[in-house]
Amino acid sequence: MNLIVSSSSLRRFTASSPAKSLKSLSTRTSNIGRTVAFAALASITLATVVQIRSEALLDSGVIEASTAAAEANIRTDPDSGLSFPETLVIPSKARFPPFTLVGLGVRKVSFLGIKVYSVGFYADLSNPSLKVPENLPTEEKLEYIVRNTACVLRIIPTRSTSYTHLRDGFMRTLQARMTAALKSGTLSPDEAEEAQSPLRKLKSAFPNTPLAKGDTLDIILAAPPKAADTPRSLIIRGLGSVENNWVAREFVLAYFAGTGISPPMKKSAMDAIESGILLTT
User: Fold this and answer.
1) DSSP reduced 3-state for 32
2) What is the CATH topology of the domain spanning 73-279?
3) Domain residue spans in the chain?
4) Which intervals hold domain Chalcone isomerase (predicted)?
5) Is the pLDDT of residue 94 over 80?
6) In the chain, what is the greatest distance between 2 CA atoms, to the nearest angstrom?
7) Across the chain, what does the average pLDDT equal?
8) What's the whole-number mean pLDDT along residues 217-244?
9) Contacts of 60 by beta carbon, 8 Å cutoff, 6+ apart
10) Which residue has the higher pLDDT, 151 or 4?
11) Which long-range CB contacts under 8 A does 62-66 form with residues at least 24 apart?
């Protein structure tokens, strides 16, 4: 069979084929270029994410390593077996100073002596403004420390409990101290009224959730502000804070009033002061 191709058809073929080929080649080249560009962008993005994540992990590691080094030495509550670092470092934007463990002990309730939690009392004893008079009795030295430098109460439950259970105990103690202070005249009715809103705020800061055995609850009493008209802060770490001189101060002082909320902790703190802890920090 003979194939006959007209001259006009041949001319159309030879004229159009290079253009179509070039257009097809250009399209494929453009697609390849976009693919390569996308791959390069993805590679750069991935590298950036990896770098940022690595830097974040490194920064976190530095903070954790620094905290771990500072808290390497521990003391154990003989009644509960729970451990407390001798130096407490609290990572925070507020840049709290290192806190020295002054005393620790267990909190018991009811005539059965049920153990509720162990508590450690920490204070910023390196504060240059803290000049405890040497002639004060030991118990008054403890009060002087609470009134004049930053402190921390670290609470570790000995059994599973709840934030609200602890909160109710805190609030009963503060209300009893307020009643006694009003009766003795050390707190005026106006000061008591001023403390009501911070007390309500403190009560609402505690969530209705469990607090497991061995978890930590840090309650921080900030150092007295330099400005006389600025109230002290009581910070329930991770939950909130209140600003009122009486509420903040009395929350901590309650642990040393009378026999103390935790008599073993009070005795431990007094023993530390009598042993010269103020001279070694």
Assistant:
1) helix
2) Chalcone isomerase (3.50.70)
3) 1-70, 73-279
4) 99-126, 147-269
5) no
6) 128
7) 82
8) 95
9) none
10) 151
11) 63/91
